[in-house]
Amino acid sequence: MRALTLAVLCAVSLMVVLDGSIVAVALPAIQKDLGFTPSTLAWVVNAYLIAFAGLLLLSGRLGDLIGRKRVFLAGLGLFTLASLLCGIAQDQAQLIGFRFLQGAGGALASAVVLGMITTLYPEPRARAKAIGVYSFTQAAGSSIGLIAGGTLTQLLDWHWTFFVNLPIGAIALALAVRLLADDRGPGLRGGTDVTGAGLVTGGLMLLVYTIVKAEEYTWADARTLGLLAVSLLLLAGFVLRQAKARQPLLPLRIFRLRAVSGANAVMVLMVAGLFGFQFITALYLQRVLELDALSTGFAFLPAPLSIAVMSLVFAERLNHRFGARAVLVTGLSLVTLALGFLATVEADGSYTTDVLPALVLMGIGFGAAMPALMGQAMSGVAPADTGVASGLINTTQQIGAAIGTAVLATAAASRTGSLLAEGTAVPEALSSGYRTAYALSAGLLALAVFSATVFLRTRKVQEAIVA
């Protein structure tokens, strides 16, 4: 039964991760059907991202207080219902609003999954294997989403990128009600930190909004700087509130765990480089190599296959043999090399020689790194704090995704625009912009390698501390 429970939790996690990318390939069809402008079309993605990132931390803490099963079921139900509403949306406002609801449901469901897996598998080696399966859903989900989005959009229509969630959500909901153990936290009667909840949710939502709008306004614009200042003030107020609250939303004691603090820092840098990489690579394949949506989706297939082999077959053994930090640093180093290789792509390049080797190398590195990183993020966390620790690592993952997409897209567009103004041919200008973005991605991953080396302890040190 434990294996089936893990399968349900990971299936829901995969469905939520897929939804962040499955819609990306369908955006041109959505734009044509509902009449979006290029600027308003971005909100089909941004509405989901803002709600998802903003509510993860609150959702994780709610799981600790009122029960992770309750929060998971509520989130899964809301996500499935919102998917139906998105699929039948008739205008722009409806689709954007329902995407926000979908993001909220995704946050509630996914924020508590890692904490539930940690509780479900208390034995260290069994837990490592389970986290490897979960990490696969996180690591490969976006690439699988591109494949699924291209297939559904080209063979059916964009509505099915949302309808595909309905049978999965309904089956998972029925199984989860039966399989998940009832857990009851201390409840809300002890005093919920409403002020802290408002500060962190508002601060995170505004921060993600500022990041995604920076591509339009530019980072030096007064509006961007003003919004960024307000979001940081809200988050600073949240930290001060947590230090004084009787029942804090985010107990600051978990940051005393070096593994937790270090893992979250590494997650931001890693995801910033890799989420932007997917966006840039999809553009390179379609706009330079001229692949259609379906071909673009399948072009990413080597990455999730490599991730699956590494995370599901070898990751647990490698972590047991060499320690999480060594595996994490090695995996991130391989990803950095892959991004450096992509930073040499040309306008007359080919998928087989210029993209495929990097995807395979990146899948191997990421498949090794992600389970090690997730294990570090939950290392030493008390049972009462597993929900908030799970929500925290998912929050930093989403912030990294927002930063990476905004920064890399802006850098690529700026470089391409300057070359076009100088009279450079479109394919060469686009390729140069993408090379710039890949180089920045490699830089972010190099910083992640440095952070993992400096902030995460070796296995021998961790064992000495435990002893």
TrEMBL record:
Domain Major facilitator superfamily (MFS) profile: residue ranges? 5-460
Locate the coiled-coil region(s) and give their ranges: none
SUPFAM superfamilies, sorted: MFS general substrate transporter
Q: Which GO terms describe its cellular component?
A: plasma membrane
Instruction: For this UniProt record, give its keywords in alphabetical order, as a comma-separated list.
Output: Cell membrane, Membrane, Transmembrane, Transmembrane helix, Transport
Q: Does the keyword Ribosomal protein apply?
A: no
One GO molecular function term of this record is: transmembrane transporter activity
| Transmembrane annotation, as ranges | 40-59, 71-90, 96-121, 133-152, 158-181, 193-212, 224-241, 262-285, 297-315, 322-343, 355-378, 399-417, 437-456
Q: How is the protein disposed in the membrane?
A: Multi-pass membrane protein
Q: Pfam families attached here?
A: MFS_1 (PF07690)
The record's principal subcellular location, in a coarse class, is membrane
Q: Which CDD domains match?
A: MFS_MMR_MDR_like
User: InterPro entries from the entry?
Assistant: EmrB-like, MFS, MFS_dom, MFS_trans_sf
Localization per record: Cell membrane
Q: What is this protein called?
A: DSBA oxidoreductase
Origin species, per record, is: Amycolatopsis lurida NRRL 2430
